[in-house]
């Protein structure tokens, strides 16, 4: 049996969230992607949402042009976004459900319900030489439908496991992921996993068989804030240090 290392795709959407909060040119998305690459990321994931709340069209083009590691573009099966993907042609696209009001992707795709549209979109993306992944819950019917529609990869939705309210539910959800990964592998699908994963989940996640890659975003960006804040404050203090305040007038003059 051959084994290979589990790959890490870092989702940098929330670096763009910080930028969009003030419409500033910083933090620079490419610099963030390069830092991830430098630290061992195998790929960069971005989600071009229809409402453009974080990633912008120009980011997709620029990152694809400049990145040295593969880009995975998450997207809804929406004509405007599919057209952009076909123009950019990233290494991989991951089709996800999208709701305007949601804070983040709330669940896997209902592959069966949207089979007709998904079949033609998958064919179009694959014809343009992209690897096509479907973001699905670890549900046997969804997995079978994904293989039937021509997907090459499924990304198992780990959010329900990661957000489980108690250990018993977490174990049930982990078992669903284990079974789902086995079923997907048996169908000839490559198996990725993602959503809601933070450092404490990793030991359990590593029990899921056949995993090719994990896509992790929010927790890494949050952790980066915490491990980087001290240095950011130190650098600001150092930049302010040369200032010499002229003698202030006494508070009260006679
Ligand atoms: N995988 C998919 C399909 C997603 O939609 C997201 C969120 O954009 C992620 C992974 C990353 O999730 P998180 O930011 O919670 O790590």
Ordered list of secondary-structure elements with their pairings:
Blueprint: E1 7-11, H1 13-22, H2 29-38, E2 43-47, H3 57-66, E3 71-75, H4 79-88, E4 92-95, H5 115-127, E5 131-136, H6 140-148, E6 153-157, H7 159-162, H8 167-186, E7 190-194, H9 202-205, E8 211-216, H10 218-240
Parallel strand pairs: 1-2, 1-8, 2-3, 3-4, 4-5, 5-6, 6-7, 7-8
Pyridoxine-5'-phosphate (PXP) is lined by residues 11, 13, 47, 74, 94, 96, 104-105, 135, 155, 194-197, 215-219.
What does this structure look like?
- There is one protein chain.
- The chain is an alpha/beta fold.
- The chain is built from ten helices and eight strands.
- The chain has an eight-stranded parallel β-barrel, surrounded by seven helices.
- Strand 2, helix 3 and strand 3 form a beta-alpha-beta unit.
- The termini are far apart.
- The model has no long low-confidence stretch (mean pLDDT 95).
- The structure holds pyridoxine-5'-phosphate (PXP).
- Pyridoxine-5'-phosphate binds next to strand 8 and helix 10.
Please bin the fraction of helical residues: 40-55%
Proportion of beta-strand residues: 15-25%
User: Roughly how many Å apart are the termini?
Assistant: 90 Å
What is the radius of gyration computed over CA atoms, rounded to a whole number of angstroms? 22 Å
Enumerate how many helices there are, as a single number: 10
Helix-strand makeup class: alpha/beta
Please, what is the average pLDDT?
A: 95
């Amino acid at each position: 049996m051959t084994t290979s290392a589990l790959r890490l795709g870092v989702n940098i959407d929330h670096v763009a969230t910080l930028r969009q909060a003030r419409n500033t040119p910083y933090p620079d998305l490419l610099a963030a992607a390069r830092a991830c690459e430098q630290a061992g990321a195998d790929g960069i994931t971005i989600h071009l949402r229809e409402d453009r709340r974080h990633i912008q069209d120009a980011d997709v083009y620029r990152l694809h042009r400049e990145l040295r590691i593969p880009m995975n573009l998450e997207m809804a099966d929406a004509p405007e976004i599919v057209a952009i993907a076909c123009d950019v042609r990233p290494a991989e696209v991951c089709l996800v459900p999208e709701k305007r009001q949601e804070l983040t992707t709330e669940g896997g795709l209902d592959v069966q319900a949207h089979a007709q549209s998904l079949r033609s979109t998958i064919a179009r993306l694959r014809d343009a030489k992209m690897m096509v992944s479907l973001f699905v819950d670890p549900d046997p019917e969804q997995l079978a439908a994904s293989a039937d529609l021509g997907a090459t990869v499924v990304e198992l939705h780990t959010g329900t496991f990661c957000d489980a309210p108690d250990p018993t539910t977490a174990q049930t959800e982990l078992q669903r992921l284990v079974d789902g990964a086995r079923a997907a592998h048996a169908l000839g699908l490559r198996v990725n996993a993602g959503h809601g994963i933070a450092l404490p989940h990793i030991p359990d996640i590593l029990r899921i068989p056949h995993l090719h890659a994990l896509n992790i975003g929010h927790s890494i960006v949050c952790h980066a804030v915490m491990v980087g804040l001290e240095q950011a404050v130190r650098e600001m203090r150092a930049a302010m240090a040369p200032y010499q305040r002229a003698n202030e007038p006494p508070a009260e003059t006679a």
